[in-house]
Each structure stands twice: as structure tokens, then as C-alpha cells.
Specification:
- By secondary structure, this protein is mostly helical.
- A hairpin with a 4-residue loop joins strand 1 and strand 2.
- The radius of gyration is 18 Å and the shape is globular.
- 28% of the residues are buried.
Length: 200
């Protein structure tokens, strides 16, 4: 079986999502024991998939998108699953996966002070899906969807695992973050809709 770059991009998005869901439905005791290693395995596979995609994509020649997938996923609304990479987005996606892998390795020995290890690992992996997806998205609405995926895990990371000595402060910081970001997201969505109305 030949593995294409397009498949590897989907693996990079699918693996952390599947591991995140698996940790969420796993019994608590088993999940807490396996969470660090599940995070390492999931983030390592994501990193390897993106490194493989980088090899298959080759050098960027003229700024063209490569490893492109373009399929309708909501034809009635003319929404398309449009992924790909170029010479700017691919290095950022790889670096994001490397950062998440390093964070996952860190949790093997150093556990979050606030506890909830299984939830922490699952949320970091969901965050990875959103971050990598923003770099792979090739249309505005898909970019918006991945961007919004990032917001929810970020709120939990700030509110639950922020400064362990300032619980009210971290909750306030998380709320401020989500309010300002949602306001920006709403304006961005309006801008996307105006662009679509003007250009199709």
C-alpha cells in the first residue's frame, strides 16, 4: 500500500483526535495511568506523519500548494474539505507537532500540579488538532473551524492548569481570553462572509 502525502496530512489530524476521544471514554483509573504514554504515542505519530508529508512534498517551488485534498463535505452549503501545505504552512505545522510532542514527553515525568492528568493530555491533543488544522486549511471557513477548535481547550488549560496559587486569577484570565478571542472570531467570520458574498 502506497501512503500518499494527502493521507499523511489526514493522519496528522486524525491521530490526536482519536487518542483524545479514547482518553475521554476510558475508565478513570486506566486513563490516568495510560494518559502520559498515550499522549506521547499520539503526538509522536502526528509528528512522524507531518515529517513524512514534508519529505513527500519536496521543496517549495513558486509558492504552489502541495498535497492538496479538495472534497465536498457539505454540498448543500458549498463547503469543501480543502487541505494542503506550502513552504510557509508546512514548517509551522511540523514545529507545532514537535512542540506538542515535547510537552507530552514532559508530562511523563512531571505531572500538572492541578491533577486531572487524563483530561490535561486529552485537551492538549485536541488543541493540537486545532493548531495543525489552521496551518493545513486552504479555505477560509475550514480555517475558521480549526481556529475555533483551539479556543475551548485553551480556556480549560488556562482556567484549570494556570497559576496553581491564583485560582480566581486564572479563571479571570481564561474568561478574558475567551471573550476577546470570540469577539475577534465573530468579526473574522463576518469578514469571511463579506468576501464570499463579493467574490463567490
Amino acid at each position: 500500500m502506497v501512503v500518499t502525502g494527502e493521507v499523511l496530512l489526514h493522519v496528522a489530524l486524525g491521530v490526536p483526535f482519536v487518542v483524545c476521544i479514547g482518553l475521554a471514554v476510558m475508565p478513570r483509573r486506566t486513563g490516568d495511568r495510560l494518559a502520559p504514554w498515550a499522549g506521547v504515542a499520539g503526538s509522536a505519530l502526528t509528528l512522524l506523519a507531518l515529517l513524512g508529508a514534508a519529505v513527500l512534498a519536496g521543496r517549495d517551488r513558486g509558492g504552489h500548494f502541495r498535497l492538496v485534498t479538495d472534497a465536498a463535505w457539505a454540498p448543500a452549503l458549498d463547503l469543501r474539505w480543502h487541505l494542503g501545505v506550502d513552504g510557509i504552512s508546512l514548517p509551522f505545522a511540523v514545529l507545532t507537532a514537535l512542540l506538542v510532542f515535547c510537552c507530552s514527553l514532559y508530562t511523563v515525568r512531571v505531572r500538572p500540579e492541578a491533577g486531572r492528568l487524563r483530561a490535561f493530555v486529552a485537551i492538549v491533543l485536541l488543541l493540537e488538532v486545532g493548531m495543525v488544522g489552521t496551518f493545513l486549511a486552504l479555505n477560509l471557513l475550514l480555517f475558521f473551524l480549526f481556529f475555533e477548535i483551539v479556543l475551548v481547550p485553551m480556556w480549560f488549560l488556562i482556567a484549570w492548569w494556570g497559576d496553581p496559587h491564583d485560582q480566581p486569577g486564572r479563571t479571570s484570565a481564561a474568561t478574558t481570553f475567551i471573550l476577546y478571542t470570540l469577539l475577534g472570531s465573530a468579526l473574522m467570520l463576518v469578514g469571511f462572509l463579506v468576501v464570499h458574498a463579493q467574490t463567490g
